[in-house]
Design brief:
This protein is mainly alpha-helical and about 450 residues long. Helix 5 runs parallel beside helix 7 and helix 17 runs antiparallel to helix 18.
Amino acid sequence: MKLRTLLIIVALLVAVYAVASFAFGNMTALRQTINLGSFAVPVYFALLIFFSAGALSILVIGGSREIGRWVEQWRMRKASKKNEEIEEEYSRGLVAVLEGNDDEALGHFRAVLERDSRHFNTLLKLGEILRAQEKYSEAIEFHRKAHHLKEDNTRPLYALVEDHEAKGDMDQARIVLGKIIAINKHSVVAWRKLRSLHIKEKHWEKAIEAHERVEKLSNPDDAHDVADRRFGLGIRFEITTVRLEDGKIKDAVALLRRLLKENDQFIPAHFVLGEALIKDGQEAEAIQVWYNGFEVTGSPIFLTALEEHYLSREQPLAAIEALKRCVAQARKDTLPRFYLGKLYFRLEMLDDAFSVLSSLEGRATYAPTLHYLLGRIHERRNHHRESALAYRKVIKEMDLIQLDYLCRACDATVMSWTPRCEVCGEWNSIEVNFREEITFEELGLAPAPIYSSRPPS
């Protein structure tokens, strides 16, 4: 029993006791009549009426409250049961998503919305599934509903950014990102996403502006953020390539030199700087840049650059001397020797080629081009001619005379070196696909850092 109810009962008992005491002591006065409108009634009867009315009103008020409280509890129990059923249905949908049954998940999520059209998490998940099914307009509709429910919550806005990006509407994606930044202008995640959109559209100048905001907002003590700052090297490198395409060679050269001063392990900057200097008529300096690039990074792309440069100018002896110089300056000479042997083969200097290449057989466990070249030399010397002819046909079809390249970030294989992987978008990750029995570090080929185009998770 509540304290208030107890006090009301005590007050009623006190009132009854007081009236009774008064009545027994004042019977003559109680029998006198009083007028109630057009009726004349005894005093004791009027008191009885008033007391009864007061007691009845108290009982009605108290009863109404108890009934209201019971109804409210019943409603709460009913709502709680409904919420439990909704959450159970939502959980079934999540399980279906984890199991990869998108159609089943859609059924569960739609069932949730039939019972509660304002279920925030369901609107988000339903939109994500529809986006994965390339139903972008429907996904956008559900994510907008979620945004209207919680306008200060950025989750629906990020989902809308993904929807518009998947749809190919980059302008709208940037507009939504602007709303996120308006809510939280210090959001590193939002600025990273904006940077990613600019990169996707190759708007490098805008990308570097967004990257500078990322650098400003990131934590200098966080190793993850420190690694992210290096990402700016890749964007600035792309700006230099645009300058080169526009004929602004001197500007590009200056930018590339600044990049290398910041990080001399950035292979694309060494490579393109050499190309830019050649365009500017500074051939000797370009050659030296490639020598320096090989010495600093150990990347064989500079061996290819030197070889092709001299052969394109019909200077085979200069090409040989350039690769010999690289062999001499390398701490581990497996790859430069292989390139030298390959060059000898290209120049039909078979004895020299065989001498160099045969010395590498014990060093490489995977080098089909090496074995192909040795096979061709044996063929020239009339060793197992019939099998060699068949082998040559296979090799010719596979075009193994061309070295293939591997992206260290995503393992994609490409036929030519590029500054940036077209598959995953990473810079500085393309390397010759040449596996050794000993590690690259032991060969003097320390792995260069990769400059990611993906926002950190």
